[in-house]
Amino acid sequence: MAYRAEEKDSKSAVQITKGEVTAIRAILKDSEIMRNPKQRQHTFSRVMFYVSQGINMSPLFSDMIIHAATKDFVEKKLIYQYLTYYAPSNEDKALLCINTFQKDFQSNNPQIRGLALKSLSSLRVQSLNEYIIPCITAGLTDMSPYVRSVAVIACLKTFYFARDFFDEQKYLEKLFEMARDSDPTVSGNCISALNELLGFTTSAPTTLSSQHITKSLIIYLLGRLDSYNEWHMQAVLRFVKRYKPTSEDEMFDIMNLLDIYFRSNNAGLVIAVAEIFLEYSSTDSQLSNAVIKRLVDPLITMVISGNPEVAFVAIKFILSFEHRLPGSFVKHHQVFYFKWNDPVYLKQAKLTILREIVNEQNWRPILQELEQYSIDALVGAQVIDTIGFVGIKIPDSFGVISRIITDTLQFEQQSTTSAAIITVRDILRRYPSAYPQFIPLIGQHFYSFETNEAKCALIFLIGHFGEHIPSSPYLLEPFVERVADELSEANPLPFVDIHISLLNATTRLFFFRPKEVQPLLGKLLGDIISTAAQGVVRDSALVVYRMLSQPDGYAKTQSVFAPDSIAESRFQRMLSGEEEGVALIGASFAEEEAGTQDEVWREWGSLSTVYNHPEDYFTRPPVLSVLFNRQLRQAEKEATVRREHEERAKREQAEKDRVEQEELARRLAEQALVSEPQFLRKAACSPQDFQRLWKELPEAASEELPLSDPIDVAEWKGKVDRSEFTLIACGGNAQNLKMFIYGKSSSADVVLADVRGNGQTEMLTCTVHSKNEDLASQFAMSILTILTD
Amino acid sequence: MLSALFILDETGKPIISRDFRGDIPLKHISRNFINNFLEEDDNLVKPIFIVDSITYVTHKHGDLYLLAVGRGNMNVTTAMVMLGKLVDVFKTYFETVSEESIKDNFALALELLDEMVDFGYAQVYDPSALKTAVFQQSRRLTNVRAMPPPTGAVSWRQSVPPIYYEENKVFCSVVENINYLVAANGTVISSEIKGSIQMDSQLSGMPELHLGLNDKLAFHQSSASGMDPNTQAANRTIDLEDVHFHQCVRLSKFDTNRTISFIPADGKFELMSYRMGKLLKPLFSVTSQSYEFEGSRFETTIHVTTNFKQKSMTKTLSLLIPVPSDVDTPSFETTIGVCQYKPELNCIKWSLGQVNGKKTCAMRAQMGLPTMSSSKPSAVAPPIKIMFEIPLFTVSGIHVRHLTINESSGYTGIPYINYKTQSGEYLVRQDPPKIIKP
């Protein structure tokens, strides 16, 4: 139902837009309305508004071109924007607007020249490049710095849309020249463009190499750094980052010069400076650490900036620092406390950083703070998880954690309580001796959890610390009672973990509380062995059962499931394996990740840090990936089409088959009706007559059939005898059989058959003599059918 | 660089979309944003995400989402700041930036975007610089000389034609936003001052300004300062941890002799921002005592004491006091101010208005509770929120000593200096109510 409603909506949306396009076209053509300046601007705004909303306004292209020669500047801007949007899809008509653009490019007003050039260079129509390129080249030497700054970016555009011209016009060389333009905006745009072009290391023109990034250029750019606006400063800094200082002194000179820009109120600029500092200090760990310390304050400012998105990114940067130089932010744990309105993602990010920076000194206030957050409906579970993490890192905190967990377990929120019980299990796996602080709270309540992991955690705790819980067998009881029902469900797979845990726990507890647990264990084993399907649960139950039923089974089983000496047991060895697993969570890096992390570190400040993946992981050369996507889409489309074809073919085939079958059935029915009395039953004929007729009548049909079974003479004879035909003579053996059969149709046509069966070639041939050929072949088939059936 | 920029409404529908580079299909951007951000599970939402190797950078502002999309490994901080500052620029043009105001000023917004970003690269972001390039209303070309935005070394201020004011004046206000988190027992868990100096320059020509802050101010340079924190405290210096300046400030001069000199941008801008993270004494002491008579009523008593100097006075002061979600029939008694029950927030709002320093005010509220209740009292009670504004006062003690104006034409401009402290997020935790069984 919902689907149908949606379909209807989308349909009506299309209709509305179609209506709009027609309505606007009518307005654009209405000279009365278009004479009113207010109406005009409103109309063009409306068109652009629909464009913005993703509605295709391309059909209006020719109507918009007519108005392109407007004198009004705001209208001009709107119309030009429209034209650049739809020029690629209206290639043939785009030529019509070139004239207007070119005229505007001759204007006395630099802003109009700039606008015209900006629009021209964005047209993306190959066939018009011969008109566009001269304008760009002229723009590079325009008197107005504004036009030059537009022309510089236009050069970059040609790299993508008119690569031939880019090379032919030597734009790259020009960009390097113009990096020294007297105007900082022009120079800054040059540097932006060069940065991007240098990024295409593989496809960059051969002339482009690092030799262009000369010391003198870098000194020149740094010398006038103050004159750039804050965005161009960032471009310049990213350009400088590509430069390798020739000496250490030079490197320190640059760093000293740049240090003041950490004071910019543009976070992007601060990060750009940081990138250079980290790049230059990458070989000197001491220096690199000093740089990290230098960045602590600016990053904290970003975190408390009040802008959650910026704070999120800052925390990602901080996280990478904490991995590189642990401890840089431990003193600032208050910064990462939740704010009232923090979005969930920021709270999560703050939890990850608190996890990293918690240590022996600051765990108390951090835990106190985390406790406040545990009631949070959305991140409560993650908060509890973090609290457990603190516990694993700092065993001293068990007292406090135990109290928090106790409070939490009473709190009626499933996700939080589930996280709490899992936390207790993880801590006790790591530190089994800490049970006195946690186990008493298990015995206080009957808990019910929704998730399997939480249920398993509770069963684990009851089983492995059951000797310290007075009510432990009764806590397990409800779980055991449910087993039979769970096993008989259609899909018992989700319960596998629970049943294994239960088996482990009950068996272990059996050795501590034999009297109370025995019936429980019996029921559990019985239920599983009798109802469970083949698999790990049943196998495990059988292992326990057989171990226990051996003569010395009790002791053996005990040594496996409930050893006195913890160190010796197999089970405990398994546990200690898990212990390592738990400890690993505490380590910031797994070994195999280290290489990737170094790569991420080298790309610090970019998206790599945010995603915590090296660049290659999430980027592909833009053109390639577009191509690839297109191919993929194409392939998908083809596959869909093929599938549809196949399905249609199948459907058609099925339909055809059905029709054919019906046809056949109909024909057979007709035939049956007509030919029912076709052969007279047991028409009489003497062997002499047969011989005579055989000679008189021509051969009318001959049929062959391969034999599947050996020939049984008596049976075959019987078969013919039982049929409506007359057997005249029969002779031979299983290897070579001969039969002469006579038949007479209702229309008095006679048919004579000579049937030969060959045991060696396993072939059965039937030659029929008759005047009526149709009848003959029918006769032959009937005989062969009778014989082989 | 950005490939395209979107301004989307609350439901993710585009209001403005601007394609800068034409290298990504725009068709699915809005849908992907809705799927991966708006309709995604809260636990999985990230403000920056990637779909089909296109990165989405989001910025929420009121009922709007600003969305920058791009390919490759873009400079994410730059993209974010571009979005943030875009809102700032829009603000100077539309007053408030909302779905309505953008729709009303659609052509203007497009015009602004066009000048601000070219092929995904930020160009001009200074509102005063944009003024000449962008037309507020439709005008005939013959009437107005269109001017490209200034490109020279002083990109934040137009020089041709020179700015002219009949009366030359400059407003300088020191605003401190303070965040506090105070435990129920009155100890400060965290406190932050986010200070800024906001300028409103109405000066002709190209004036050169010098700003002097109070002597005691010691700018914290974490790497350089070897001073013991205790001696710092003894000298009563102010520890501004992280100072950032507007682009117009000559950073090199500040670095050498700590003077702040600049050619101001025209109109309103933020000259400088600073931060102080040292634990401060709380401005307000709040004690609360609540009782929950199970099944009958809820009672709470709040005392709030203003700890700042007696001669200072709040312009506004109000407290948001959380109460259980199912209370009814509220009744209040206050020594000062009025109380209002806000059921939509599950809070009592106590508005005190103007209160002098060193004063204690009290409030008592009594509310009914349903006999049968499904909600259980939790171990942690939500905190009390304090909102206030104190004029002519700074928590940090920062003080503008002088602000001089030099212009080649020699006019005298009048500086006006103002101070203000206001609440950012001031939270006081409270103990959970004592449960009294019937």
TrEMBL record, chain A:
Its main location: membrane. Residues 638-658 are annotated as: Disordered. Residues 679-788 form the Beta-adaptin appendage C-terminal subdomain domain. It is found in: Endomembrane system. SMART domains: B2-adapt-app_C. Pfam families: Adaptin_N, B2-adapt-app_C. The keyword Transcription does not apply. It comes from the Eukaryota. InterPro entries: AP_beta (IPR026739), AP_complex_bsu_1_2_4 (IPR016342), ARM-like (IPR011989), ARM-type_fold (IPR016024), B-adaptin_app_sub_C (IPR015151), Clathrin/coatomer_adapt-like_N (IPR002553), TBP_dom_sf (IPR012295). Belongs to the adaptor complexes large subunit family. This is AP complex subunit beta. The lineage of its organism: Eukaryota, Metamonada, Preaxostyla, Oxymonadida, Blattamonas.
UniProtKB/TrEMBL annotation, chain B:
Gene3D superfamilies: 3.30.450.60, Mu homology domain, subdomain B. Belongs to the adaptor complexes medium subunit family. This is Adaptor protein complex 1 (AP-1), mu subunit. Its main location: membrane. It comes from the Eukaryota. Keywords: Membrane, Protein transport, Transport. CDD domains: AP-1_Mu1_Cterm (cd09250). It comes from Blattamonas nauphoetae. PROSITE patterns: MHD (PS51072). Residues 167-429 form the MHD domain. It is found in: Endomembrane system.
